[in-house]
């Protein structure tokens, strides 16, 4: 007889396979740059979050190596005991300056940053208004907090206003917070932050923006909040060091008082070892570079516009994106999967994203152009799209 664990796992894995939701992981044998190697084949990479190419930047590599030589490979303790090094402090000062806030606090990942920060701020006596398309780490952070989760329809400001009004009038909650992604990663659309801030002011909501996909991309690199000039109006700005910044980690930027509180209450700060010297030094170097020049952002946006125009001119339908995220809508889930597979056979790596990550019938290929791509790579990708698109009768 199978053990309870084995039968549970077999059933669940089979159920996922039956629904076509069992993902096989591809293994890279190269760095995650504009060209990657999988199974000994070189592919044009349109799947990474390495927006600015910083994951493979020589200055960041050098900073990481220097940090290892000076500080070792591990921080040796959690931040609140003695794992905080001058590198962490310098990174946090740089982040606060970059974001235009009084202070900042770095975490080991964006995911644990949301888990730790949200649950340090709200609890079971509170309510959180959360956009229906918010990232999994926001959803988990909200659940962990025990607060009442009130979902509003994606970027639907009437729905948010109505639900904020009801929550306020019920007088059931000590505190209320609205939480949203700055850039939504499946469509590339941008949160309506000016309206959200206005509603928050009207109903006394705290505001929390997760700018994982906006940092380094929007607002000359400083993110979506800065893009809208709202750095004094958004209470809690969260971001990652793992997407455009190219390394790993997360952070919260805001008032000094907020950071003081997180240092004594955010559980990943208190109970999980500090990020490594190498990661911290590399992230610090990236933030300094982003502050010094917007050349990489300019290149990213130029490449994104070029790819988006090329695909539209061929007759493909893109999601209503406002950022470099370039989803090509295919529709049927199976055709989207086949499309991605055919792209790979032709030398282009781009992932299919299907239900339940996106609504049923809106299966898509999500393309992530970066500053590190050159025109020849993008032209080749567009050529391959034309071939596969005609073959699968998505375009004429
Ligand atoms: C990727 C992402 C995270 C998690 O960040 P990591 O640094 O990869 O853990 C959190 N929020 C959003 C919106 C994201 O896209």
UniProtKB/TrEMBL annotation:
Q: Which Pfam families match?
A: Aminotran_1_2
> Which InterPro entries does the record cross-reference, listed alphabetically?
Aminotrans_II_pyridoxalP_BS, Aminotransferase_I/II_large, AON_synthase_class-II, AONS_Archaea/Firmicutes, PyrdxlP-dep_Trfase, PyrdxlP-dep_Trfase_major, PyrdxlP-dep_Trfase_small
Tell me the superkingdom of the source.
Bacteria
User: Which SUPFAM superfamilies does the UniProt record give?
Assistant: PLP-dependent transferases (SSF53383)
User: GO MF terms on file?
Assistant: glycine C-acetyltransferase activity
List the keywords (alphabetical): Acyltransferase, Pyridoxal phosphate, Transferase
**Signal peptide position in this chain?**
none
Query: Which residue numbers delimit the Aminotransferase class I/classII large domain?
Result: 42-383
Q: What is its EC number?
A: 2.3.1.29
Cofactor(s) in the UniProt record: pyridoxal 5'-phosphate
UniProt family annotation: Belongs to the class-II pyridoxal-phosphate-dependent aminotransferase family.
Q: How does it assemble?
A: Homodimer.
Q: What is this protein called?
A: Glycine C-acetyltransferase
Which organism's genome codes for this protein? Fundicoccus culcitae
């Amino acid at each position: 007889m199978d053990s309870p664990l084995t039968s549970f796992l077999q059933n669940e894995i089979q159920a996922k396979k039956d629904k076509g939701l069992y993902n096989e992981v591809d293994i890279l044998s190269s760095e995650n740059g504009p060209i990657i190697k999988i199974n000994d084949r070189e592919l044009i990479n349109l799947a990474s979050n390495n927006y600015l190419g910083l994951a493979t930047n020589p200055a960041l590599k050098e900073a990481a190596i220097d940090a290892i030589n000076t500080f070792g490979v591990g921080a040796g303790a959690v931040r609140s005991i003695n794992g905080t090094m001058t590198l962490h402090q310098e990174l946090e000062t740089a982040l606060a300056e970059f974001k235009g806030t009084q202070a900042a606090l770095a975490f080991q990942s964006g995911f644990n940053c949301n888990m730790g920060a949200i649950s340090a701020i709200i609890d079971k006596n509170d309510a959180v208004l959360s956009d229906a398309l918010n990232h999994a780490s926001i959803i988990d952070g909200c659940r962990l907090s025990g607060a009442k989760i009130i979902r509003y329809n994606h970027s639907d400001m009437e729905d948010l206003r109505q639900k904020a009004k009801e929550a306020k009038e019920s007088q059931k909650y000590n505190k209320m917070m609205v939480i949203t992604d700055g850039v939504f990663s499946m469509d590339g659309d941008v949160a309506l932050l000016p309206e959200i801030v206005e509603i928050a002011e009207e109903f006394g909501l705290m505001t929390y923006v997760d700018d994982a996909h906006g940092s380094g991309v929007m607002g000359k690199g400083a993110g979506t909040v800065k893009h809208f000039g709202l750095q004094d109006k958004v209470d809690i700005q969260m971001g990652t060091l793992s997407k455009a910044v190219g390394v790993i980690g997360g952070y919260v930027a805001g008032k000094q008082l907020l950071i003081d509180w997180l240092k004594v209450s955010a559980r990943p700060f208190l109970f999980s070892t500090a990020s490594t010297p190498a990661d911290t030094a590399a992230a610090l170097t990236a933030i300094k570079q982003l502050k010094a020049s917007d050349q990489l952002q300019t290149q990213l946006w130029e490449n994104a516009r070029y790819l988006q125009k090329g695909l539209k001119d061929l007759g493909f339908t893109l999601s209503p994106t406002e950022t470099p995220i370039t989803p090509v809508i295919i529709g049927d889930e199976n055709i989207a999967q086949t499309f991605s597979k055919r792209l790979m056979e032709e030398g282009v790596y781009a992932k299919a994203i299907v239900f339940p990550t996106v609504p049923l019938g809106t299966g898509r290929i999500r393309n992530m152009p970066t500053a590190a791509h050159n025109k020849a790579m993008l032209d080749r990708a567009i050529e391959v799209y034309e071939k596969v698109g005609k073959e699968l009768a998505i375009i004429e």
